[in-house]
Specification:
Blueprint (H helix, E strand, L loop, with lengths): L27 H4 L2 H4 L8 H9 L2 H11 L6 H13 L7 H7 L7 H10 L10 H5 L25 H4 L31 H11 L24 H12 L4 H4 L7
Helix pairs in contact: 7-11, 10-11
Length: 254
Amino acid sequence: GTRNAMGLSNARWYQRRHFFWDERANTLEDQVLMPIQNPIEMGMTLDLLTQRLATEPFYTNLFAQAFGTPAVNTNRISRALAQFVRSIISVQSKYDIGVTENFTNFTAQENLGRQIFFGQVGNPPATCAACHGTDNFVPGPALNNNGLEYPYVDLGVGGITGDTNDLGKFKVPSLRNIELTAPYMHDGRFTNLEQVVEFYNSGVVDNPNLSPPLRNPNGTVRRLNLTADQKAALVALLKTLTDTNLATDVKLSD
């Protein structure tokens, strides 16, 4: 494919509620059926899917438990898959513990990374929290262009809406468990977090739709000019968002 798969943890708390990088799915119920039908993913029809599930007693028994009868249909499949995705909840990272303990559990490096992330250190200060500042580390109701490229190779949301103001804009994924979800960006161009931090430090590309937090007051592209130690601290902070309990939860295994 042309896009990198997003992480699923805490998908239920995306305030914009739309899904996929270009937000073409209005709900999780819509989203979960699309990869099944995509010709370069599962390449199935929903009719074939329902037929296959209906011949497996293992599944018809589960449908009966969940919905009252063993009938298999697209609506029930969609609802079941969406509810499973909503159950993938991440709230036990080192960062979450730190919130309750005033971050006394953090190393000095991790606390420096936290200060950089929230714009308390640096000249100019970093604006990470402007796009990842909620408890779920997403931008709330905003839609953003992070200056990844120009001219746009992938039109993003603009390819769906046809609005030139949406060109190069993408759904902003949560940073939770970001250590576990390489590669990064919608096209997977970065293989590690160090490359991601360096991109925001020095590589943001100017374009007409660049999000305001990535510009200086005079309109130029913001360059963070972080030191090597500061960049390493920011990576260390991102790794505190890893929830090892989620990653090893038997409920989410095969």
